[in-house]
User: What shape does this take?
Amino acid sequence: MKLKYKAVVIGGSAGSFSVVSKILSKIDPKFPLPIILCLHRLKHVRSGLVEGINLKSNLSVVEPNDKEKIVAGKVYLAPSNYHLFIEFDGSFSLSTEEPLNHSRPSIDHTLSSSSYFFREKMIGVLLTGANKDGAKGMKDIADKKGITLVQDPDTCDVDTMPKMALRMMTPTKVLSPDGIIDYLNQLA
Amino acid sequence: MAVNYNIRELRALSEHLTTVTGIPFDQMNQSFLKRRLNYFNDKKGFRKGEQLIEFIMKDEFKEEFIAYMTIPVSELFRDAGLWRNIRHYLTELAFVSEINVWIPQVSSGEELYTLLIIAKEEGIIDKLNVTVGYSSNYKIDCIQKGYLRAKRMDTNLYNYKRFEGKAALEDYFDTKEDGLYLKNNLMDGVKFKKGLVTAGQPDEKMDLVLFRNAMLYYKKDYQSIFKNAIDDCLKPGGLLCVGVKEILPSPFSDRFECIDQKEKIYKKFKALMD
Assistant: This one.
């Protein structure tokens, strides 16, 4: 079966760990797309987050190495202190370039590079968070006609990030965490 | 309107840049190249691709461009666990011999300064022979003077604490108006050699090669050229440190043993000795 979409890319910051854990604990174990996570995290703490997310996830969660190929059905978490990009050949590339929006990894970088490669065949999701990172990336996805889902600010621990995105672009949908889960699972 | 390169233009430009600068821009990741070129064009206010080409025809501007395209390490003691392991390795080795270290591509100095501070703390700096490769004259002047941007000092101090250093990090630097400078005497055993990896290979065999996060910006196939050059220079039993998210795939995995998976420290097999 040929799938309409090639990837789901999720960005989040403050408060997003619990939302991501919830999404991955309820995602269909046969979910057919790769899920790429870019979450703001402490740059000096390299271990713990991927293990924490893995505990409840229905899908295997890994931190990709540089030049690693993207595989369907896997979850990839941007490593600490690196930006995560999608290269023109569809592999991951990492970078120690300067932080963007005070963040490395930066959600804008991951979302924007994803939009360039996947174009209309991707779903971008922006969750709760405390700065403007991710807003431009979501706009880039929308400009390429990809699907954009923004967490409903009323359901966010910190609503700055989704509100900044809503100021910059009109998403496909504004959804609660449960709504995001339902939306993704109907793709399975 | 900003310059917006399509794939064909990007490929042609990267070939031109390679010819003009001698740096293999045509072997860099295309997404990286496009991004950095866009940043540089924006920074300079260039609105047409030709403006960049004209800009780099002048030597002093060419150096500035190369410097911009070289990504700094950005922190002292980045990945403190790695540096603790290196400290252990260097102090053991210093009992029996001098130590040759190669940093094939230095872009901002932090990796070099960290190494020198460790050697000073362990009292082995006189046994250390460091060769540093560089591609940009624009940056190397600063590095030779030991310059360090002061604004990242909080991160550096935090890393140093995690490294479990023996002194106060500030003691290794002189404070001046424009930033911090590594104390002069620490640089005595350092040789600087222009040329990117293959062009700047040291004459002696090395005990340790620090090449962390420098290959990230190059295409996968081209990385093999770097790895072969490093393999050639490394003594059997010598160590190669790459970034914590870089790997040495086959055939290099047959020539090296990964002795620290977390910090990505590889040891060249002794069995392959000539």
About this structure: Chain A touches chain B at residues 44, 46, 63-67, 79, 81-82, 85-88, 91, 93-98, 113, 116 (CB under 8 Å). The mean pLDDT of chain A is 95.
